[in-house]
Amino acid sequence: MRRILIALSLLFTFTASHASNVEIQHVFGWIENATLEPWGVKVKSKLDTGALTSSLHARNIERFEKDGEEWVRFEVNVEDQDEDEKVSRKFERPLYRDVIIRGAGGEERRPVVLMEICFGDTVHEEQFSLENRSDMIYPVLIGRRTIQHLGVVDVTNTFMHEPQCDEDSPVEKFDKDNTDEDVGV
């Protein structure tokens, strides 16, 4: 019994000292509004802790070469939550990498680009795989690689933060060295 009490005492001491060193993080609901930057269109985003890489609804995805590098041209068609109307915009971004998605139907290779998205009052440059998500409820899916930079997800809540970014908002540029590429794996 004495050993159990000593072990519990040490456990509580370690937990209390560790908790005081943990940085306070933002808490987000499992569904949040965000804005795609620099476009500024407000979209519903699903924060999915089961997904590793974030995904953005895109159509007419086309790879091309520019200045000796591989780029991706694509069109984003989403419903603007502020205007309650469908909006569309074409983008061109350097290819960051390819991701292989494995599912029941086999493997699929998708392009990944860096895009800026606003959560709360901060713009985050993050990795997004491009895919046609027209059959999905949410045009933007936020995976763990992005969530690790946002904070924590409260699965019992939705819409805890409205995007409020402007030209003076801080921009968290993607930093591969400060990212756990296999977070949670």
TrEMBL record:
Highest taxon, organism lineage: Bacteria
Region ranges (Disordered): 163-185
Pfam families in UniProt: Zn_protease (PF05618)
Signal peptide: 1-19
Domain Retropepsin-like aspartic endopeptidase, first and last residues per copy: 27-162
UniProt keyword terms in alphabetical order: Signal
Stored SUPFAM superfamilies: Acid proteases
Transmembrane parts of this sequence: none
Matches recorded under InterPro entries: Asp_endopeptidase, Peptidase_aspartic_dom_sf
Cross-referenced PANTHER family: ATP-DEPENDENT ZINC PROTEASE DOMAIN-CONTAINING PROTEIN-RELATED (PTHR38037:SF2), ZN_PROTEASE DOMAIN-CONTAINING PROTEIN (PTHR38037)
Name of the protein this chain belongs to: Retropepsin-like aspartic endopeptidase domain-containing protein
